[in-house]
C-alpha cells in the first residue's frame, strides 16, 4: 500500500513567490492546501490555478498559524509537508519523495529531516556552517507540531526521523530592504522571547520544544549550539559567532554576496537582537 502526502503552504501577499513555489510542488504527487492570512494582491488568484484547497485564517504568529493548519484543515494524507511561499521543491527532492511514498514506510519512522539550500541575492550560500541546515518539514500526520515560539520555530516530531539527502531551496529575500525589515521584526520577537524566558525561567516540561542534544539529530545539535550561544554575554557573542562562521567555517568562500549575507545575518542581526534585549532590560529596571 502506498503512502499519501498533503502539502500545507502559508501565504500573505506572496504574488512574487507563490507561483514558483506551487510550480515546484506540483512535481510531487500530493494534495496542496493554502492557508492565507488576508492577501490583497494576486496571491489567491495564482493559488487557485494549482489547487481549490484555499483557506483563510487570521495571522497571530507563525507557530499558531502552522498548528491551526495542522489541526483544522480537512487533510486526507498520511504525511504532511510544510512549505513557505519562498520555498522551492528541488527536482531531486520531488523524485526522492515520490519514490519514498510509492511504497510502505517503516512504521517506526514518523518524520524526515530536509535541508534548506539558502538562495540569497541569486547565490547559493554553501559555507559558514549554513549548509546543510536541516528542518523537520515532513512528518506523519498527527506526529508533528510547530514549536510555540515567537521566532526560530521548528517542527517537533514525536518518534524516529530520517535525514534526506535532497534539498528545499529557500529564497530568503527579494531585496535587501525587505531582508532588513523582516530581520528587524524577527529581532524584536526573539528579544522579547529571550527576555521572557530569562524572567520566568521557562522549562519545557511537556516536550513541546526541540530537545537540545549535542549528539542528537541535526536539529537537536543545532538547538544545543544555539543554547550555548545564548549563554555568552550580550554583544560579545555576535562577534564570536561571526568570527567562527566567516573565518573558521569558511564563509568568506561565498564571495562578495556571501560577505553581505554572513555579515547581515550572522553579525548585524545577532547584534540587533542583543541591543533589543539590552533595551528591554533597561526599561524593566525603570519600572
From TrEMBL:
SUPFAM superfamilies: Nucleotide-diphospho-sugar transferases. Coiled coil: none annotated. It holds the Pfam family Glycos_transf_2. Keywords: Transferase. Residues 7-98 form the Glycosyltransferase 2-like domain. GO terms for molecular function: transferase activity. InterPro entries: Glyco_trans_2-like (IPR001173), Nucleotide-diphossugar_trans (IPR029044). Belongs to the glycosyltransferase 2 family. WaaE/KdtX subfamily. This is Glycosyltransferase involved in cell wall bisynthesis. It comes from Mucilaginibacter gossypii.
Amino acid at each position: 500500500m502506498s503512502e499519501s502526502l498533503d502539502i500545507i503552504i502559508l501565504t500573505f501577499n506572496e504574488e512574487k513567490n507563490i507561483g514558483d513555489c506551487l510550480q515546484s510542488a506540483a512535481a510531487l504527487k500530493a494534495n496542496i492546501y493554502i492557508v492565507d492570512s488576508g492577501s490583497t494582491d494576486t496571491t489567491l488568484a495564482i493559488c487557485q490555478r494549482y489547487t481549490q484547497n484555499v483557506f483563510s485564517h487570521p495571522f497571530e504568529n507563525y507557530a499558531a498559524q502552522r498548528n491551526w493548519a495542522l489541526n483544522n484543515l480537512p487533510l486526507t494524507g498520511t504525511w504532511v509537508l510544510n512549505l513557505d511561499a519562498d520555498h522551492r521543491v528541488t527536482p531531486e527532492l520531488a523524485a526522492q519523495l515520490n519514490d519514498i511514498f510509492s511504497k510502505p514506510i517503516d512504521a517506526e519512522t514518523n518524520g524526515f529531516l530536509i535541508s534548506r539550500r539558502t538562495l540569497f541575492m541569486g547565490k547559493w550560500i554553501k559555507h559558514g556552517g549554513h549548509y546543510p541546515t536541516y528542518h523537520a518539514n515532513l512528518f506523519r500526520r498527527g506526529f508533528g507540531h510547530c514549536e510555540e515560539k515567537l521566532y526560530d520555530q521548528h517542527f517537533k516530531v514525536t518518534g524516529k526521523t530520517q535525514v534526506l539527502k535532497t534539498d528545499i531551496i529557500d529564497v530568503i529575500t527579494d531585496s535587501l530592504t525587505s531582508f532588513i525589515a523582516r530581520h528587524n521584526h524577527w529581532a524584536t520577537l526573539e528579544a522579547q522571547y529571550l527576555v521572557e524566558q530569562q524572567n520566568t525561567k521557562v522549562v519545557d516540561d511537556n516536550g513541546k520544544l526541540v530537545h537540545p542534544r549535542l549528539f542528537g539529530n541535526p536539529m537537536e545539535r543545532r538547538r544545543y549550539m544555539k543554547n550555548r550561544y545564548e549563554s555568552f554575554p550580550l554583544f560579545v557573542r555576535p562577534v564570536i559567532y561571526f568570527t567562527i562562521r566567516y573565518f573558521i567555517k569558511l564563509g568568506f568562500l561565498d564571495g562578495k554576496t556571501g560577505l553581505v549575507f554572513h555579515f547581515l545575518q550572522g553579525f548585524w542581526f545577532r547584534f540587533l537582537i542583543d541591543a533589543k534585549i539590552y533595551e528591554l532590560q533597561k526599561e524593566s529596571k525603570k519600572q
